[in-house]
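Morning!

This is the sequence you dropped in the shared folder:
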Amino acid sequence: MRRKGTGPDGLVIVDKPAGLTSHNVVSRLRRLAGTRRVGHAGTLDPMATGVLVIGVEKATRLLGHLALTAKTYEATIRLGQSTVTDDAEGEVTATAPAGHITREALDAAIAKLTGDILQVPSKVSAIKVDGQRSHRLVRAGEEFELAARPVTVSSFVVHDVRRAEQDGIELLDVDVTVDCSSGTYIRALARDLGADLGTGGHLTALRRTRVGPYRVEDAHTLEQLEESLDVMPIGEAASAAFTRWDVDAEQARLLANGVRLKAPGLGSAGPIAVFGPEDRFIALVEECRGETRILAGFA
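The structure's back. Tokens below.
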């Protein structure tokens, strides 16, 4: 019987609606799961929709590792306007005509933002500067700079370019799909694309369609979860997200007691999900100097 105040161990893949913060979604799931032990992997801005991975009970230990996986976004970038937040929720700070931009110029600018790049994050973000969230410093009128960070944009594809007009100024709306590493700011890509083209740019729409192996097609709306809380068992979630290693009963016992084993040599650069007999999820480990190092235990 489940203890009072605890929920099922596993992941919930949510299709987050616009207008809610990631913390709002976590609060809803705490009520539905009947536990305070709920968290999320990778924040989505209130404006954004799509895949938000929620961990319940023991699965919260997976979240820090899941947050490091690759992600896919569908977005609309408006060229011709810059905003204080680099998205449509912020005040417009500059406007410049964008109707003259050719597809060739657009493709060339996107190519500069593809691959391994250095990106300055958006200032209106949760990044800390001297212990303070940068978005709070922006709203307080503080002047500061964020350091560029290495990120990988493995794919940056244009699907459609549409002309728009506002206050007599011709703008361009560009629909794109971006595959990228953890830590990539799509708002910053929009900002930098507009800056390179000399017109400014910001996001008007953002939808995350994939976090690691978890896709929006498998996600549930909050309304659906209110009717039936669909929790992916923790073992199934770990097997889908990480390289799998099956061990025998003695190895499982040793790992459960924190003993380092000889590394399996699976060639995995990331965490390895270890399973014992009867498909029991034991631990997340990594290979380190020929041995296993336990990242999180689940036995």
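Headline: Helices lie at 22-33, 63-66, 103-112, 134-139, 186-197, 222-227, 234-241, 249-256.

More detail when I'm at my desk.
O.
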